[in-house]
Amino acid sequence: MRIPLIAGNWKMNTTVPEAVKLVTEMKPQLEAIQGVESAVCPPFISLTAVREVLKASTIKLGAQNMYFQEKGAFTGEISPLMLAGTCDYVILGHSERRQYFGETSEIASRKVTAAFKAGLLPILCIGENLADFEAGKTAETVTAQLKGSLSGVERPAGLVIAYEPVWAIGTGKAATGQQAERVIGLIRQTAARLYGATFVQDLRILYGGSVTAENIGEFVGQPDVDGALVGGASLKADQFVSIVRQTARVKAALPGGQPNRP
Q1: What is the pLDDT of residue 259?
Q2: Is 164 labeled as catalytic in the residue annotation?
Q3: Which residue ranges form the domains of the chain, and what is each CATH number?
Q4: Are 160 and 145 in contact (CB under 8 A)?
Q5: Which candidate in 94, 96, 128, 181 is catalytic?
Q6: pLDDT of 120-177, one tens digit each?
Q7: What is the pLDDT of residues 58-76, one digit of tens each?
Q8: Which residues contact 262 (CB under 8 A, 6 or more apart)?
Q9: Cβ(91)–Cβ(65) under 8 Å?
Q10: Across the chain, what does the average pLDDT equal?
Q11: d(CA 2, CA 35)
């Protein structure tokens, strides 16, 4: 059974002291939960401080973005070499990067390649906007984004994909568990065509978009949903811990039994 992953995307929130306080509060509770891997993704300025708190911890650390060049005259950017050795994961292709900063699937592909080269594991985000959803183009959009964002990427072992319907991010309007399962199943089928059936057996695909402690069970209760990329709820220690704890309980009850401790 694939080990579920719950990753918290803190976005542009928390000062360094606030980030340290939040992860310090969550740490002992998260470490006590077996069968689920948890990760936090604070802003760049807090990565080093949070890493210190997480020394010798089972909790993983992720960045929210990076550039695909290793160094150079790219003012304001963070390179994969700057993250290597500090982070385990890096979120790439998030809809907010695509929407507000003009990032394309081609750029996401270059970032995925650079992340793997630096020893980082990408959490690749894909998802349709409201217009595509209402026009019945979800499958077309998601498939195109997946193929484009992995174009030229060979043997992406350890890759994590997050399906985040744009119309559900930060709106309080989450997809249903069945909707998420249907699209994630399509993503898994598409990935199998790209990399083979053996690859997708280990490929973790998360759901993201208005995930809360109240609705997480609906998503992780689906067999193809391997966890969640959590936004606002990851900024509240009790909510995030509850999401991880519920994921462990729900997944353990599914056919296939208890996953191994990460």
Answers
A1: 52
A2: yes
A3: 5-253 (3.20.20.70)
A4: no
A5: 94
A6: 999 999 999 989 999 999 999 999 999 999 999 998 999 999 999 998 877 777 789 9
A7: 999 999 999 999 999 999 9
A8: 3, 35, 36, 37, 58
A9: yes
A10: 95
A11: 10
Rounded-to-integer distance, Cα 18 and Cα 211, Å = 22
Q: Residue 22: in which H helix or E strand, if any?
A: helix 16-31
CA separation for the pair 181, 222 (Å, rounded): 6
**Residue 251 · residue 3 · CB < 8 Å:** no
What separation in angstroms does the CA of 239 have from each of 12, 232, 254? 19, 9, 23
pTM over 0.90: yes
pLDDT digits 0-9 by tens, 93-105: 999 999 999 999 9
Note the Cα 134 to chain centre separation in Å.
25
In whole angstroms, give the CA distance from residue 175 to residue 155.
31
Give residue 170's pLDDT.
76
Closest CA to 10 of 77, 79, 84, 94: 94
C-alpha span between 172 and 200 (Å, rounded):
30
Catalytic residue among 96, 103, 128, 164: 164
Active-site residue flag, 94: yes
Encoded amino acid at 49, one letter? A
